[in-house]
């Protein structure tokens, strides 16, 4: 097989999780997944479709009604300079599949790709699979464990030789959320260098601003993190990736989407044909139901996750030796513990000796070494506090 | 975007189908899909899983019980030299996804890949996406429209410079089915040249030998086309692709699998993570139900499809100017009509003027030019005869 594929690192999260395999006493916060089941109306829509016999191929780009609903949602959330029509939307077999399609459309072997890190490892692995040279530009941890972008360093790294810039914000694992000013500077720069931006915005709805809009207001129903779609022109070199997994509690359904310039869409359709051909129709029906429920369901989820975040971060900040910031976005606390530089060894010890399942920061690249990721998406904030108790025990030893 | 992707041909089947869009009077036989809905027990298994709340991530390689059931089925059908265990099985998000994973594992930009054609266009497109040089070796049409392999030409084309040989048998679109002797010669040759064989065997259960075993017998329950798995050692450079789509009437579910040497499997798991992460658990439960029903359901489907094949081929052979063979495998009649060299123009005219939807042979490469593909998987053989009537009308003009 290819040496390049053999050398790709396996998931260190999986490595830690395997150490806890078969143990029912582990409190697991390692995966990027809520412990809530997909809501009933969403599941019902899939069941109705299956019972009606919708078991045939879908168009490559997705059901026209789902593409229309996604376009309407994006235009409602973002008020882009020009409304985004269904012709710019592709339905994909997961967000990660949408990201892979974007790389296949843009990246030749030998091309240079810049990735903002630490980040979900898939984002750097995909261009590597296509033979690209991947340059990593790191976010920087500052006071209180807050990570931020060195914009000048990133602008210096992106040159006319850079084919694609990959940015994930709100960021997994750090919670870093890109500001409007940063987006504007990057977009203007990439217009000059001719670089494509692939923006992984799957956490856009999991956003917790300091002054949230009043519950039940129209602003609350539209709350999301700044997006490149707010400012980009229809023909900018920009592909934005969305997923149903996080905002709609649908990780197991493998449904995502992307928005690209219209001229790209016939080619995206071909790539979908050659990768997975289409998403199941009944899964797309579930996606339609999720979008229909979104105006109530997403603000309710945001409130629950904000409570989870505050419960966890307050408790962690009260521990000695722990440094952790209150993230503005996504669903992770990213923490470090004084005197614990080896995150994989620490994570394995926490599982083995204390039944606490966290993801090692090194899973997100060497830039995350010394840190731990804790997913706070949970039905029961009490579960998070039980986890903090176990960490406190571990630190006391 | 990449010029290579822009230049990939779009589906000519889709092009013809688009010409019939919105017309309810078209008899469509253009897609590789039965018109039968997935059987109730399979759909029920998915519904039960969704209702039970199985909406979370699955392991990358699939549910252990599905991997075990697939391994048991393969070992039962093929009696390989060494039984195939679950550790060699990966569950994938469709057969086409399994094929793409195999290419990503094996093919660098610049590598040489040999493909036996005419064939389903995805097989040649996938290595091209990865930057490979694709060499096409054509099956040859002979007397009565029977296509066969020029084994010497294929052996001459596969050299130590050939990284991968891709073979789809039973073949879409020609119905060509590989003989045991051809498999043995190819496997021995590829062992010498160090070439990987990627065998697309998704039609192995759609096989119609001249002397079928008696209905209800154990042989009937195990009937399938010759497979490389019958003869290959566990560590041979061989990846075999399967799909639930064709033998279990599950096209819309996007569920497939692959069997590879055990040493490859950790790397296949990584590639699944980076491409789609996993297949939905409830789709995998449907796959388990399909395997449980297979000993009765597959022979019954084989009988129905044999009747469809004979109904269609008998009627076509009775038409003047039509040349068509009775295929041993898959679910297509591949025909040509005297005086009609342009298959795309003919297919468009048949849709527009006669409401008959067939796939142009040129969709499967230049080697298929002048031919038409007719999918005979239908609940109602009468529907096939109604289609033949339309063709007869067209030929009479």
UniProtKB/TrEMBL annotation, chains A, B:
Native organism: Sphaerotilus sulfidivorans
Entries under NCBIfam families matching the protein: PRK06108.1
Signal peptide: none
Name of the protein described by the UniProt record: Aminotransferase
Cofactor section: pyridoxal 5'-phosphate
Ranges where the Aminotransferase class I/classII large domain occurs: 44-391
BP terms from Gene Ontology: amino acid metabolic process
Pfam families linked to this entry: Aminotran_1_2
Matches recorded under SUPFAM superfamilies: PLP-dependent transferases (SSF53383)
GO molecular function: pyridoxal phosphate binding; transaminase activity
InterPro entries in UniProt: Aminotransferase_I/II_large, AspAT/PAT-like, NHTrfase_class1_PyrdxlP-BS, PyrdxlP-dep_Trfase, PyrdxlP-dep_Trfase_major
Top-rank taxon: Bacteria
EC id: 2.6.1.-
Keywords: Aminotransferase, Pyridoxal phosphate, Transferase
Homology family: Belongs to the class-I pyridoxal-phosphate-dependent aminotransferase family.
């Amino acid at each position: 097989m290819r040496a390049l594929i053999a050398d790709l690192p396996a998931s260190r999260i999986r490595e830690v999780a395997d150490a806890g395999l078969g143990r029912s006493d582990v409190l697991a916060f390692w995966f990027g997944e809520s412990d809530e089941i997909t809501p009933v109306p969403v599941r019902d829509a899939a069941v109705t479709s299956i019972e009606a016999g919708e078991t045939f191929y879908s168009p490559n780009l997705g059901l026209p009604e789902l593409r229309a609903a996604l376009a309407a949602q994006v235009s409602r959330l973002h008020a882009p300079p020009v409304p985004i029509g269904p012709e710019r939307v592709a339905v994909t077999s997961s967000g990660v599949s949408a990201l892979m399609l974007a790389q296949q459309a843009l990246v030749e072997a030998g091309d240079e790709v810049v990735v903002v890190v630490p980040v979900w490892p898939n984002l750097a692995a995909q261009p590597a699979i296509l033979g690209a040279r991947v340059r990593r530009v790191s976010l920087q941890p500052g006071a209180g464990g807050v990570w931020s972008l060195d914009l000048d360093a990133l602008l210096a790294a992106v040159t006319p030789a850079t084919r694609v810039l990959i940015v994930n914000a709100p960021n997994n694992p750090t919670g870093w959320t890109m500001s409007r000013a940063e987006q504007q500077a990057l977009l203007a720069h990439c217009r000059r260098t001719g670089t494509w931006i692939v923006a992984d915005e799957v956490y856009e709805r999991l956003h917790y601003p300091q002054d949230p809009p009043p519950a039940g207001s129209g602003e609350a129903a539209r709350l999301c993190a700044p997006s490149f779609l707010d400012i980009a022109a229809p023909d900018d070199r920009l592909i934005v990736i969305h997923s149903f997994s996080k905002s709609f509690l649908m990780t197991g359904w493998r449904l995502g989407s992307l928005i690209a310039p219209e001229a790209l869409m016939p080619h995206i359709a071909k790539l979908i044909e050659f990768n997975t051909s289409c998403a199941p129709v009944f899964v797309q029906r579930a996606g339609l139901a999720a979008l229909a429920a979104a105006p109530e369901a997403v603000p309710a989820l945001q409130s629950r996750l904000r409570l989870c975040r505050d419960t966890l971060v307050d408790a962690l900040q009260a521990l000695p030796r722990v440094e952790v910031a209150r993230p503005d976005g996504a669903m992770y606390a990213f923490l470090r513990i004084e005197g614990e530089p080896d995150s994989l060894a620490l994570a394995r010890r926490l599982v083995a000796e204390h039944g606490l399942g966290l993801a090692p920061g090194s899973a997100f690249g060497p830039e995350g070494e010394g840190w731990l990721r804790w997913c706070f998406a949970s039905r029961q904030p009490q579960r998070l506090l039980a986890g903090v108790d176990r960490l406190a025990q571990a630190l006391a030893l």
